[in-house]
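May I ask you for just one protein sequence along with its backbone structure tokens in two labelled lines?

_____
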Amino acid sequence: MSDEPRTSQGWLEALEARNGWGASTNRTNILRTLNGADVLSLVALFVAWSSALLFLAGESNWAILVMFGAFAFDKLDGYWARRQGLSSPFGRQIDSFIDIFAYLVTGALLFHYELAPNRLASAVVGFAILAFGGLRLVRHNAEGFESSGDVSYYHGTTVVHTNVVVVVNYVLLSFAGFWSGWLATATVLGAAPFMISEYRAPKTYGSHVLLGVLAAVVAALVVLLELGA
């Protein structure tokens, strides 16, 4: 048995002391910084990654349903942060990081596997989704929301809007005989640059309700597709 004195020092404190981080005020202990809303964001990341794996496995309908689960956790973390007064610039950066996978990567994968008329179109559209979406999130981290009266506004359309455009194209291609991969390419390419436009997208309760209703309708249609109806 060791003769060294026992202390109540936790493993995090021991690691900080060993690496000389404890005395620094310029470093962020990421584990200590995470709060309940951030944990919900990480759950959304796990669900979004699961959706991506389903896309890669060729199970696009199930992937869309799981993707909607990631959306739900992403919205829940924002609600929890507001309810608990946990909103912060650091939390906004975590949320934007999760949004890349929940909305942009899944949207690009859905387009690639189900909508793209050829590989070149997939490469161009996927790049547009990721590039414009990533720039939009960087700008949002720097600027935050713009407020006018009781309404907050996003600068440009959101990554959610772009994902919705991709999902609606999937529904149209599945159920509307006149729709095509080239029309999907044109609409998604047309929508992506609006994420870095000067358009002011209102953030309202009604818009979240509308998104929830749309997700429920699409989920029902996707289940019909999966069942071969």
